[in-house]
Amino acid sequence: MATEQNQDAQDLQQEQAEQQTQAENEQAEVSVEDLQAQITNLEENLKLEKARTANAVYEAQKSVERIQRESEKHKDTVLEKFAKELLESVDNLERAIQAAGEDNAVVEGVKLTLKSLLTTLEKFGVVEADTTQGFNADLHQAVGIDPNAKANEIGNVLQKGYTLNGRLLRPAMVMVGQ
Questions:
Q1: Which of 26, 118, 119, 177 could form a disulfide with 149 if both were Cys (CB 3.0 to 4.6 A apart)?
Q2: Do residues 128 and 162 make contact, with C-beta atoms less than 8 angstroms apart?
Q3: 3-state SS record for 104-157
Q4: How far apart, in whole angstroms, are the C-alpha atoms of residue 145 and residue 10?
Q5: What pLDDT, on a 0 to 100 scale, did the predictor assign at position 137?
Q6: Coil, helix or strand for 103?
Q7: What angle do CA 22, 24, 26 make, to 5 degrees?
Q8: pLDDT score, position 156
Q9: pLDDT for the residue numbered 2
Q10: For residue 8, how far is the Cα from the chain centroid?
């Protein structure tokens, strides 16, 4: 009877051990499934954060580009206003040279001053609008008819026109043939 009890005890222990092993295997399987679910969740979160980071970098680059464009536009506007104001001085110097008419030291000084001013303006992109190629409504403003000029050609330039970096700064006021 003792052997039967020992045998029953051993069977009971073996059965408990099998149940415990089976429970541990089930826990291990559940743990692996949980871990795989966590890995999948973390991978999705990583993709989302990478996309957010890429979007933030893109937005930052666009902001920098926009600020640079606005800065260039502002710089061009300021330069345009400044150049327009200087053109008044150029016109006055040209009128002084025409009015003096004589070759004396004062006229030479005014001519040199005008040349220096025009050179400085050219360094910053201000150049005289071309009036030799005929009338161009984009560069010239017709203010009258010149009876001695051919049709669609400029007969007399009343005020020179200027461009700033290829854009019209001030149109040339001209008399055009009919």
A1: 177
A2: yes
A3: CHHHHHHHHHHHHHHHHHHHCCEEECCCCCCCCCCCEEEEEECCCCCECCEEEE
A4: 127
A5: 83
A6: coil
A7: 70
A8: 85
A9: 61
A10: 88
Tell me which DSSP letter residue 102 carries.
Answer: S
- Gyration radius (Cα) of the chain, Å: 44
Give the CA diameter of the chain: 149
First to last CA, the chain: 139
Q: Rounded CA gap, 17 and 6, in Å? A: 16
Q: 10-residue block means of pLDDT along the chain (178 residues)?
A: 69 75 63 88 94 95 95 89 90 87 80 91 90 84 85 85 89 87
Kindly give the pairing relationship between strand 154-159 and strand 172-176: antiparallel
Domain with residues 126-178, CATH architecture:
Roll (2.30)
Is the Cα torsion angle 148, 87, 133, 138 positive or negative in sign?
A: negative
